[in-house]
Every structure is written in structure tokens, then in C-alpha cells.
Amino acid sequence: MLSFGVEKAVGSASTPPRRPSPPIRDERLPDPEVVPTDAADEAEMPLPSNPQTFFLAGLFILGALAAVYVASSIILPVVLAFALKLLLQPAMRLLERVHVPRAIGALLPILLVVGVLVGLVAALSGPAATWAARLPEGIPRLEAHLVVLRGPIQALQKVIQQAEQVAEAPGQKDHFIALRRDLGLTGALFAGTRAVLDGLFTTILVLYFLLVSGDTFLRRMVEILPRFSDKRQAVDIARQIEEDISAYLVTITAMNATVGVATAAAMQLCGLGDPLLWGATAFLLNYIPILGPLFGAVILLLAGMLSFDGLWWAVLPPALYFGIHVVEGETLTPMLLARRFTLNPVLVILSLVFWFWMWGVPGAILAVPMLAILKIVCDRVRPLRALGHFLEG
Fold first, then answer.
1. CA 254, 256, 262, 265 torsion: positive or negative?
2. For residue 239, what are the CA distances in angstroms to 11, 218, 248, 313?
């Protein structure tokens, strides 16, 4: 029995170990090493399956939008101040490197921006008033250029008048006219100017304290969050928003200035006159994607009709402006921002229309930055990644 045990041990040692047979794999099941793209996307971008979640999210969004609309006089200056803070953040960092105190460093860029705005208003008020005075005198010239469209315009005016007559209730028109007479043109202009000045003062005040506070809000948020992963995610989102939106605003401002200079030179060459006015108009309107350049082309078309006799010469200023915008909007700006922003153009248009309806021209200017911030947040919060993927172009 001893020899049998020795022979068994020697035999087992000399025999190579048997390899385990591979597990039987069902051909109907997918290879576990190869994950389908749809499954991976579903794992990375989970969608809530509970209808109650969609219902509550919809109610929350509607309530938030209603609050934003009702409190626009308060919320709009705060949002505008936050956007300006991101625009001026590189200047603040530069001032911090040269050891300028934050209280003074926050005041310097604000004074620079306010000074530029006041200077533009002072320089452009004269030419703008001149063109406004020329408009009544140039109506016959406009009618001569638009003689082809006279019939459709008159038909459209008749339809509008009929619709107004149907929609008007008795007594409303007289009350409206009396109200407008009591208010007067001076009162209406004063009321509008006062509202604008109140909004600008609130924006500048909030902007100053945002620049002075620096990262205080981010530090307090990190201290409140319980888990380290949440702290890291909050810092990542804040840094990404600051970097991307600051780069977007700085790049757009530089490109808008380039468009303004090119437009001023083109209008001077074609003989339209007042190049500073048209350059500043192109600079400001280019902050509103798509809709701003279209409105600028219409303004330049009207200016060309008031200045030139021939229709082809009248079309030259908007044609030059459109060419400048095509070079900037289709070549330079996408080349500089393609790595940071890939937004769906249809959603960009819808965002422009919606925020213009909500907040007017400031809302249209802030539409793209707010949409980009939403995408950055959605891309880094796992339950919202599906929405971020939907916003991508």
C-alpha cells in the first residue's frame, strides 16, 4: 500500500495538470466582453422610469419659469451680473497676480465697462438722432424702392385692421387713448429710462460684490455637501462653467469687436457714412446669434435705401455686412469654440425666441450662455446626462 501510494504520488507529479474546460457559453447570450453601444449609453445616461418623476419635474420647471417671469426685474440683473462676472474673471485674475486688493480690483473693470458704455452713448447719440430725423423725409424714397411690395403690404394692413376691429371690445380704444394722452411721450420715455437705469444700477451693484466675494459661495457649498464625491463634483462643475463660459464670452466679445471694425470700414468704403454708428450697431447685435445679424441687415438695408438712389446700391451695405457675418460666424468663431461648445442649433433658436419673450433683448443675449451652463451641469450629473446628450449638436 505504501508503494502504491508512492507510485500514485509520483505519477500524479509527472502528469501535467489538466486544464479546466471552458464554460459552456450560450450562443443566444451576448459576449460579456463586448458591451453594446446602446447598453453602454443606457448605463451612462439613465432615464427615470417612474411617470411621477416626469410629472414632478414638469411642475417644478413650470413653477420656476413662472417665478422667473414674474420676478424678472430682480432675477434678470442678477443673471446679467453673473454673466459679466464670468466675462471679467480673467481681468480679476490678472489683477490678483499683481497683488491688487480685491475691493479695488473689482472696481477697476466695472469702471472700464461703464466708461466705455457712456462713451459709446455720447458718441453715437448724435448720428442716431440724425438718422432718426432723416427717416420721415426719406419715406418717399423708401416707397419708391418698395413699390413692388406695396400691394402685399396694403393687403396685410387690411387684414390686420379687420382683426383689430373684431378683437376690440367697446370702450377699450377710448380708454387706451386717454391713458396714452395722460402719460404723454415724455412720461413714457422717462418711465422706460428709469426702469433701465434701475436695472443697470442693480446689475453693477451685484456684479461688484460677486467680484469681491470670489469663490466664497463655492467654498461654502463644498463645506455643506456631506460626501467627498459630491464636493468634488460641485468643484468640477463650477470650474468647468467658469472656464467654458468665460472663454465663450471673451471669444465672442473679441469676434464682435472684429465684426464691428470690419463693418465700420465696409460702410465707410461703400459711402454710407457714420461708420462708428454702424460698427457699434454690428458689435452689439452680434451678441444675439442668428437673430441679431438678421436685424442688422434689415437696418442697413433701410439705411441704404435712404442714402442711395439705385436699388442695387441700396442692397450693397447689407450684402457687405452679411458677407462679414458669414466669414465670422461660419469660419472664425466655430474654429475657436468648436472644442468647448457643440449645442444643437435648433435648440439654440428656440432658446433665443423663448428668452427674448421672457426678458427681451437681455434674455436673447443670455440665452446661449444659459443653455451652455445647462449642458455643462447635465453632462456632469448622472441623472441628467440624457438631457445633456439631447442638448448636444
1. negative
2. 68, 10, 14, 50
pLDDT of residue 198: 81
Same-domain check for residues 355 and 366: yes
175 lies in some domain: no
Flag residues of the chain having pLDDT under 50: 1-17, 23-43, 169-186, 188-189
Q: Are residues 317 and 349 in the same domain?
A: no
Phi, psi at residue 106, to the nearest 5°? -75, -25
User: 107: number of CA atoms within 13 Å, CB side?
Assistant: 5
What is the pLDDT, as a whole number, of residue 251? 86
Q: Quick check: 30 and 36 in contact, CB under 8 A?
A: yes
Place of cell 471552458: 22
Among candidate residues 362, 373, 68, the one with its CA nearest the CA of residue 200: 362
Residue 286 lies in a domain: yes
Please indicate, yes or no, whether residues 295 and 372 belong to a single structural domain of this protein. no
Grid cell digits, residue 375: 449642458
The 8-class DSSP code of residue 149 comes to G
Distances (CA, A) of 29 to 20, 36, 38, 120, 271: 22, 12, 16, 70, 74
Contact 135, 299 (CB under 8 A): no
Q: Angle CA(242)–CA(245)–CA(250) in degrees, nearest 5?
A: 110
Backbone angles phi, psi at 392, to 5 degrees: -75, 145
> Taking the CB of residue 388, how many other CB atoms lie within 10 A of it?
17
Give bridge partners of residue 392 from the DSSP assignment: 343
Together in a domain, 312 and 354? no
Measured distance CA(353)–CA(182) in Å, rounded: 33
- How many residues are there in the chain? 393
- In angstroms, the Cα distances linking 191 to 117, 132, 197, 272, 288 are 21, 21, 10, 34, 26
Q: What is the pLDDT of residue 349?
A: 87
Q: What is the pLDDT of residue 9?
A: 40
Name every residue whose Cβ is closer than 8 Å to that of residue 114 and which is 6 or more positions away in sequence: 204
With CA atoms as reference, report the closest residue to 264 among 307, 305, 320: 320
